[in-house]
Amino acid sequence: MKEKNDMSDLIKVETITQVHEYFGLDKPKHPLVTVISHDKLNFYPEHNNMRVALDLYQVTIKDCGEGSMGYGRNSYDFQEGTMMFMQPGQVITVGDWSEEETVNGITLIFHPDLIRKSQLGKHIDDYTFFSYDVHEALHVSDDEKKSIIELMYKIEKEYSLNIDKHSQKLIVSTIELLLDYCHRYYDRQFYTRTNLNKDVVTKFEQLLKDYYKSGKPLETGIPSVAYCGTELNMSPNYLSDMLKKETGRNAQEHIHFFVINKAKTQLLSSSESISQIAYALGFEYPQHFSKIFKTKTGMSPAEYRNLN
Description:
Elements: E1 2-3, E2 10-13, H1 16-22, E3 33-37, E4 51-54, E5 57-63, E6 69-71, E7 74-76, E8 81-86, E9 90-93, H2 99-102, E10 106-110, H3 112-115, H4 119-123, E11 138-140, H5 142-160, H6 167-192, H7 194-213, H8 216-220, H9 225-231, H10 236-247, H11 251-269, H12 274-281, H13 286-297, H14 301-307
Parallel strand pairs: 2-4
Antiparallel strand pairs: 1-2, 3-10, 4-9, 5-8, 5-10, 6-7, 8-11
Helix pairs in contact: 5-6, 7-10, 9-10, 11-12, 11-14, 12-13
C-alpha cells in the first residue's frame, strides 16, 4: 500500500475500506461509497506531510468562516464554504489538513466502479472541475452548502439501509444530482467574477501574441492549453471553462482561432509556401495545419489564398 517517494512517503488508497482504515474509522457500510464527517476523522502524527494518491472520486466541503472572500481585485460578502473535487490518480498532502480547519466539513468519496455501468459513468469527465487546482475551489453560499450537505446525507442514509436492487441506482442518481448542482454553482462563480475573467481573457490573448513574437512556435510548436494554464497560474480545465463561459470558446478553440487568423494574414501578405507558413506557426506537419484550417474556414489554405 505504501510506496517510497524522494520527497516523502506516498500512500496509495484504492478502496473505501483503506480510507476508513487510514483515518481510524469503523468498517464502511458500503464497499464503494462513503460519506465522512470531518469531526470523526482521527489525525495521527505520521499523517503530517504524507502524500496520498487517491484512486477514488472525492467531493469535500468545509467551512471558510464568515465575512468576505478576496479573489483578485473582487470581494464577495456572503458567508462561504469551500468545495474541492478530486478524481482518481490525483495526489493530496494530508499534512495540509488540520482538525481545526476541517472540523465542520464533510466528504463524499466513491469508487469508479460505483458509476462505471451508469449514465454518470459515461459522462463523469464532463464535470471538469474534478481536475481544477485547489486554489480554484468552488465557493458556495450557506444555502448552497446546505443543499450539498443534504444530498450527501441522503447518500449516507441510502447505503446505511438494507441494500436492495434499488440502492445502487438511487445512490448514483443522487451523486449525479449533487454534481449537477456543483456545475450550476461553478457557472454562477464564473458569472460573478466576470471582471476578473475579462482580465484573464486579456492576459490570455496577450500571452498568445507574445508567444508568437518570441519565435517559440519554431522551437516548441503551437502553444498547448496546459502551457497557457501554467503561464496564467490556472489548471487547463479551469482556464478552458472560464474562457468558454466568458467568450463562447474554450481554450483550444481560442488557440486555433488565433493561429488561423495569423495564417490568413501570412497567406495573403507573403509568397511563402503553405508548408513554410505551417512550420512557422508551430505545426509539425503541414497536413495537420491544412486540416485544421479547412475545418475552421471551410476551405484549404491554397483555396483561401487563391480566392482572396
